[in-house]
């Protein structure tokens, strides 16, 4: 909505004469820009051992954000009323909403299913065969089945990245624990190395794209509008949601955590990847150029300013997560909370999952 206001201002000043720039283009830009990617911030958090709650809040938000942004961008790009693709049509709108929910649910189901299959295969093979004596084969099976989740989702017209995300979440919970000790270590090292390599490759590619892309369109007013929209939308996201969550949370999200989450709204690889997929029209080329500039600015300025910001907001660092959990458990037992009470007070989703694990 903010970007549409700026586009109207640009049209009024006559900078976009003869351009077809519609509200659907602004929706597309908004959806790809909503993919926050605080990789830099989380890496610094990990090194400094920042408060576990803050790390978890930021990590969880960014992961789910990426998944939603990918599916939402796709849903908007295939929004097509029969008469005019840039006019609101109730049937096409509900079809887009249906596409969004269907693709998201399908990708979630496929990723989770592959993870459960991997867990069962690794469990039964380890139990009934001597697979644990071949950690290389074990890691290979783990990797190939994870990749199969991505390929199957793409082949089925779903989103591979979202399928892999939920596959990873489920595998961390089930499959990883069924691997032999050697394979656990090898798998962890393999994925850490691939993660490090992928991050470096994508940022090198971004730098290259800034200088080698032939159709850059730099529009100062659009770029300024994008920065304003990003910060305003981030504030409208973090503070009201934190307030609503604090109404029901026993352990509140403190104000300094909220400020740090606001500061950590970096844009990165996902926004770049979504923007570069379609650069055929002039509005899309202008969006791509603006996305690149926002990614570089947020990574350099906010990524570089993470440590001073932590100091200024007086957020705890140098915390051992295991010791923190022990201290929390000790304080709970000290206040005479029995197991049932603490379980009842935890998140409802966690309670359902805990009950499922306990039974099956």
TrEMBL record:
<dbReference type="InterPro" id="IPR004709">
    <property type="entry name" value="NaH_exchanger"/>
</dbReference>
<keyword id="KW-1133">Transmembrane helix</keyword>
<protein>
    <recommendedName>
        <fullName>Sodium/hydrogen exchanger</fullName>
    </recommendedName>
</protein>
<feature type="transmembrane region" description="Helical">
    <location>
        <begin position="217"/>
        <end position="236"/>
    </location>
</feature>
<feature type="transmembrane region" description="Helical">
    <location>
        <begin position="257"/>
        <end position="276"/>
    </location>
</feature>
<comment type="similarity">
    <text>Belongs to the monovalent cation:proton antiporter 1 (CPA1) transporter (TC 2.A.36) family.</text>
</comment>
<keyword id="KW-1003">Cell membrane</keyword>
<dbReference type="GO" id="GO:0015385">
    <property type="term" value="F:sodium:proton antiporter activity"/>
</dbReference>
<keyword id="KW-0739">Sodium transport</keyword>
<feature type="domain" description="Cation/H+ exchanger transmembrane">
    <location>
        <begin position="11"/>
        <end position="312"/>
    </location>
</feature>
<feature type="transmembrane region" description="Helical">
    <location>
        <begin position="190"/>
        <end position="211"/>
    </location>
</feature>
<dbReference type="InterPro" id="IPR018422">
    <property type="entry name" value="Cation/H_exchanger_CPA1"/>
</dbReference>
<dbReference type="GO" id="GO:0051453">
    <property type="term" value="P:regulation of intracellular pH"/>
</dbReference>
<feature type="transmembrane region" description="Helical">
    <location>
        <begin position="100"/>
        <end position="121"/>
    </location>
</feature>
<dbReference type="Pfam" id="PF00999">
    <property type="entry name" value="Na_H_Exchanger"/>
</dbReference>
<keyword id="KW-0915">Sodium</keyword>
<keyword id="KW-0050">Antiport</keyword>
<keyword id="KW-0406">Ion transport</keyword>
<keyword id="KW-0472">Membrane</keyword>
<feature type="transmembrane region" description="Helical">
    <location>
        <begin position="288"/>
        <end position="313"/>
    </location>
</feature>
<keyword id="KW-0813">Transport</keyword>
<feature type="transmembrane region" description="Helical">
    <location>
        <begin position="141"/>
        <end position="169"/>
    </location>
</feature>
<dbReference type="GO" id="GO:0005886">
    <property type="term" value="C:plasma membrane"/>
</dbReference>
<dbReference type="InterPro" id="IPR006153">
    <property type="entry name" value="Cation/H_exchanger_TM"/>
</dbReference>
<keyword id="KW-0812">Transmembrane</keyword>
<keyword id="KW-0967">Endosome</keyword>
<dbReference type="GO" id="GO:0015386">
    <property type="term" value="F:potassium:proton antiporter activity"/>
</dbReference>
<dbReference type="GO" id="GO:0098719">
    <property type="term" value="P:sodium ion import across plasma membrane"/>
</dbReference>
<dbReference type="GO" id="GO:0055038">
    <property type="term" value="C:recycling endosome membrane"/>
</dbReference>
<dbReference type="InterPro" id="IPR002090">
    <property type="entry name" value="NHE-6/7/9"/>
</dbReference>
């Amino acid at each position: 909505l903010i970007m549409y206001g700026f586009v109207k201002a640009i049209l009024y000043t006559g900078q976009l004469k003869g351009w077809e720039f519609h509200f659907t283009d602004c929706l597309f830009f908004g959806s790809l820009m909503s993919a926050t990617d605080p990789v830099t911030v989380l890496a610094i958090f990990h090194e400094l051992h920042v408060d576990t709650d803050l790390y978890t809040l930021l990590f969880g938000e960014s992961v789910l954000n990426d998944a939603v942004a990918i599916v939402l961008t796709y849903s908007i790009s295939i929004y097509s009323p029969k008469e005019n693709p840039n006019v609101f049509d109730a049937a096409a709108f509900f079809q887009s909403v249906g596409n969004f929910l269907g693709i998201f649910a399908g990708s979630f189901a496929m990723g989770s299913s592959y993870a459960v299959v991997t867990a069962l295969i690794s469990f039964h093979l380890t139990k009934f065969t001597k697979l644990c004596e071949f950690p290389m084969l074990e890691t290979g099976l783990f990797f190939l089945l994870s990749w199969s989740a991505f390929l199957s989702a793409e082949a089925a017209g779903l989103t591979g990245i979202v399928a892999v995300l939920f596959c990873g979440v489920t595998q961390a919970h089930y499959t990883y624990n069924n691997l032999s000790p050697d394979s656990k270590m090898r798998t962890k090292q393999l994925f850490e190395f691939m993660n490090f390599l992928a991050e470096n490759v994508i940022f090198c590619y971004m730098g290259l794209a800034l200088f080698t892309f032939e159709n850059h369109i730099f529009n100062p007013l659009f770029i300024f509008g994008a920065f304003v929209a990003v910060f305003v939308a981030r504030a409208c996201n973090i503070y009201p949601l934190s307030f609503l969550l604090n109404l029901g949370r026993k352990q509140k999200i403190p104000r300094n955590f909220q400020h740090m989450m606001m500061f950590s709204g970096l844009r990165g690889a996902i926004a770049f990847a979504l923007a570069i997929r379609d650069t055929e029209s002039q509005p899309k080329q202008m969006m791509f150029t603006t996305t690149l500039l926002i990614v570089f600015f947020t990574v350099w300025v906010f990524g570089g300013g993470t440590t001073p910001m932590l100091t200024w907001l007086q957020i705890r660092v140098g915390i051992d997560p295991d010791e923190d959990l022990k201290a929390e458990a000790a304080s709970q037992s000290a206040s005479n909370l029995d197991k049932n009470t603490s379980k009842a007070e935890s998140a409802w989703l966690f309670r359902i999952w805990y009950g499922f694990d306990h039974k099956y």
